[in-house]
Write a structure and sequence with these properties.
With 187 residues, the chain is of the alpha+beta class. 16% of the residues lie in helices and 49% in strands.
């Protein structure tokens, strides 16, 4: 008799917990990645690239800024959960896209728990730049970045190790390997 009552209580508690979880999902979740980003307080103008990593995606997108007058390149880590897609962590560049004189931009996100960060990324606006190499203050060897093109948009990104340091130099290289521009970022 006591065992039956204990099992009944456990079942009722599990049902209550399941109902509470389904009624109160985390606030930054959505049916798809864009909806999760929107619920995190960011307005997605265009998704540029999804990079599958760990148990989710790093999403690169243009975010609306200045009351919708400009956009900026943003990135974040999203993952699939029981409730849908969840925005875990990310941010954006501190400047508007297509700022004059910037043929390559640099942004860095440090290591954060439960994310694939650190990551360095940016935009490429000079079509002569076909490779990007990244140097850090604590890594002697350069690391080659991945480049993704989506229509007229070109971005680069590279996942780093926390031990690589937080001072980043991105070098935009031509077909012949000549450095066309070098741009830095430091935390």
């Amino acid at each position: 008799m006591k065992r039956t009552n204990l099992i009944s209580v456990i079942i009722v508690v599990l049902i209550i917990v399941a109902v509470l979880i389904s009624v109160f999902p985390p606030k930054a979740t959505g049916k798809n990645i864009e909806e999760a980003i929107e619920k995190s307080g960011r307005h997605v103008v265009k998704v540029i690239h999804l990079e599958k990593i760990m148990d989710g995606d790093v999403v690169f997108f243009y975010k609306s800024i200045n009351g919708g007058k400009d956009t900026t390149l943003a990135a974040g880590y999203t993952k699939k959960t029981f409730w849908g897609w969840e925005w875990v962590n990310g941010g954006e560049q501190s400047r508007a896209s297509e700022e004059p004189g910037q043929s390559i931009t640099v942004q860095y996100f440090p290591a954060t728990k439960d994310t694939p960060f650190p990551i360095a990324y940016g935009e490429i606006s000079d079509p002569q730049i076909i490779r990007v190499s990244v140097q850090t203050d604590k890594r002697a060897k350069e690391k080659e970045a991945s480049i993704v093109k989506n229509g007229t948009t070109s971005i680069w990104f590279v996942f780093l190790n926390p031990s690589d340091g937080t001072q980043i130099r991105a070098n935009g290289l031509s077909q012949s390997g000549q450095t066309l521009i070098s741009n830095s970022f430091s935390l």
